Each structure stands twice: as C-alpha cells, then as structure tokens.
Amino acid sequence: MNVRTVIALAAFAVAGTAFAQSSQEIGQPDAFTPTKTRAQVQAELAQFKKDYPVSPWSFRYDQLAGFQSTVSRDEVRADYIANREEVAARNSEDSGASYLAAHARQARVNPTASAE
Predict the structure, then answer these.
(1) pLDDT per position as a tens digit, 8-45
(2) 75, 80, 90, 106: which has the fewest Cβ within 10 Å?
C-alpha cells in the first residue's frame, strides 16, 4: 500500500513539473509600453461621455427616443395586409424563391411591348 502511494505521489510530482512554464514566453513582449499617458486616456473618456451621454450598450439607451413616424398606424396595417402573401412567401421554407420566380415571370410580360 505504501509503495503504491509513493509511486502515485512521484507520478503527480513529475506530471506537475512537466506543465510548468517559464516566466518569459517566446515571442511575448517583456512589458506593456503604453502609447498614451493616463491623462490622455482620461481626457478621451471624458470627451466620449460628453459626446454620448448614454452608452448604446446601456439598458437606459432608447433607440427610438427621437423617432417620429411619417405614416399612421392604419396605413402601416393596410400596407402589411396588402403584402401579406409576399411576407408569408419570403418567410417560407425556400425563403420566397418560388414566389419571386412566379412573380418575376409576370413582371417580365409587357403587354405594350408585344402589341408593337
């Protein structure tokens, strides 16, 4: 029993040292060398906060705060109902390919061109 324990501990000790890395990796820089001073970074942050008072990643960010609609609710509803067939086709399994193919053929037929 003691021999197995000693062998197991020796195996763990060898395995543990096998994963040790040097403090300086090849290709890694020695230290970080900043290109800007702390004051410059703080000035940039202050300017950003002044230009954009609410971050777009904030929960308080309201994308529609300045939105003003140009059409009424009834106009939007009527437009949707008029195009309901196309919306259903474009959301179908083939992403509307068959619908577009059928309607493209109809659009190519020009009755005034064939009358000449």
Answers:
(1) 888 777 766 555 556 666 666 677 788 999 999 999 99
(2) 106
How many C-alpha atoms does 59 have within 13 Å on its Cβ side?
A: 0
Query: pLDDT tens, 49-90?
Result: 898 877 777 777 787 888 899 999 999 999 999 989 888 888
Instruction: Provide DSSP, 34-98.
Output: -SS-HHHHHHHHHHHHHH-SS-TTSTT--TTTT---SS-HHHHHHHHHHTHHHHHHHTSTTTTHH
User: Which of 109, 106, 111 has its CA nearest to residue 86?
Assistant: 106
Between CA 64 and CA 29 the distance in angstroms is: 46
pTM: 0.34
